[in-house]
Amino acid sequence: MSTPDKPHIPVMMAEVLDALAPVENETYIDGTFGAGGYTSAILNAADCNVIAIDRDPTAIENGQALADEFSPRLTLVQNCFGNVAQTIHNKVEGFVLDIGVSSMQLDQAERGFSFMRDGPLDMRMGEGETAAELIARIDETELADLIYKYGEERKSRHIAKAIVIAREESPIETTLQLANIIATTIPRRRGDKIHPATRTFQALRIVINDELGELERALDASIEILKTGGRLVVVTFHSLEDRIVKNFLRDHSDKHESTNKYSKEEKIITQPFSLSNRKVILASKDEAKINPRARSAKLRVAIRTEVAA
């Protein structure tokens, strides 16, 4: 949680900087600007330039002071990071993504991301349909499938049925309304580490903001926007996101293939990326103790290679 006295803490900052390795006069894209944690660290690490992207107009507005402080090395862009190839016209040396909702958004009750504070059931990072509008229009089966797929919630059918019954009595318009419906349907058991509504809220947020689609488009765009030797650095926070990144890097990194089934000789199938470390990087135990958000964080890094035409 972030407050004026306790600001948002960027996850795995040291590992991200080590992977990105900022150099003077180089340009990096922070695709998920948020509160500017990574951007500030990159700009302080070297006399370099950062193009910071965020779809949330509030994040861009709040970042103006930082842009003034680091002028002219920092450029703020309001857009979805999935549109980076259409937004940035020059190739860069690094592309950083911190996927998911920021604690700054969670702390704003009026944004409707969290059930910890009552607010309108919104969940939008930008424009479009709200979570309240979504659950008011889709049928029970579609809602259950959505909650199961994007929230990995085993009780999705029970939750969907309860939501449909409740909305027939009155519209579900606030975060606490929805959270209470879910908590009544699947009561919290002793030893449960998360609130019963956590996975459903995650699923709705992902769908409302097309988060997985944005991630897929950004990864595809990284091939186009990164210079040879450029670094792709991605931090994810749950299995759906990490699976997309892992599969992308598997499919787009150098592969070793036998020349024939009778020979031990191998040839390298050149791809757009190379992986210096194929294992996922996790936050340190010390960081996980200080910052609970870091406990589920996974960092993956790739280097843009030169592929012959």
Highlighted features:
41% helix; eight-stranded mixed sheet; alpha/beta; DNA polymerase, domain 1; Rossmann fold; single chain; two-stranded antiparallel ribbon; 309 residues
Folded structure, characterized:
The protein is α/β, with parallel strands linked by helices and 309 residues long. It has 2 domains: 13-104 and 211-304, 3-Layer(aba) Sandwich (Rossmann fold), CATH 3.40.50.150; 127-208, Orthogonal Bundle (DNA polymerase, domain 1). 41% of the residues lie in helices and 17% in strands. The chain is built from 14 helices and 10 strands. The strands form 2 sheets. Strands 1, 2, 3, 4, 5, 8, 9 and 10 form an 8-stranded mixed sheet that branches. A two-stranded antiparallel sheet has the order 6-7. Strand 1 (27-30), helix 2 and strand 2 form a beta-alpha-beta unit. The longest helix has 15 residues, at 211-225. It is globular and about 60 Å long. The chain starts with 12 loop residues before the first helix and ends in a 5-residue tail after the last strand. Mean pLDDT is 88; it is low at 1-7.
Compile the SSE list and pairings.
Elements lengths: L12 H8 L6 E4 L6 H9 L3 E6 L2 H6 L1 H6 L4 E5 L5 H4 L4 E7 L4 H4 L24 H7 L2 H12 L4 H14 L5 H11 L12 H11 L2 H15 E11 L2 H13 L3 E4 L7 E4 L3 E2 L6 E2 L2 H6 L7 E7 L5
Parallel strand pairs: 1-2, 1-4, 2-3, 4-5
Antiparallel strand pairs: 5-10, 6-7, 8-10, 9-10
